[in-house]
Amino acid sequence: MSPLVLTLAGLWNSGPQHWQTHWEARHPQWSRVPHGQWQTPDKDAWVAELDRAIAACERPPVLAAHSLACALVAHWAASGSPHRIAGAFLVAPSDVEAPSYPSGTTGFAPMPLQALPFPSLVVASGDDPYVSFARACAFAAAWGSDFTLIGDAGHINGDAGYGPWPDGEQLLLDFCAAHQP
Predict the structure, then answer these.
(1) For the whole model, what pTM was predicted?
(2) Is 120 helix (H, G, I), strand (E, B) or coil?
């Protein structure tokens, strides 16, 4: 059985050169959770949209989140939803509390730091402009996540050269094989 994956894009959505877009094209059974506010996301609206997408799944999905969507996953986990996921693959978690974080989001700060009640893997870069390496490590530790550093990879997006990103896709497939029935 192929893995069931919901992709979660961050602030401004993931464009045509982003790894999420490439992976969705290669895996038609994977789908992106739609949001109504990509430019000015509201945490409560995004949590509700994610919860509806999870509820619509035939079995617990793996969430493949990028950037702000990593905070979304942590907020969803703290929301008390009765729905379950198989795990979360959290790439380049943005630090919504950092002074360098772009304005326009509502309700995502402070970053939830409770342990996640499902398996998770944080994939981080040593030179991400939206999260310091120390904060990425702190998020992973607080969430009880496994941690993978892929070197100096910027924000691990299309602009940083991570379009198709086959190594990341294999990381996700391995994660799915280990955690999704």
Answers:
(1) 0.97
(2) strand
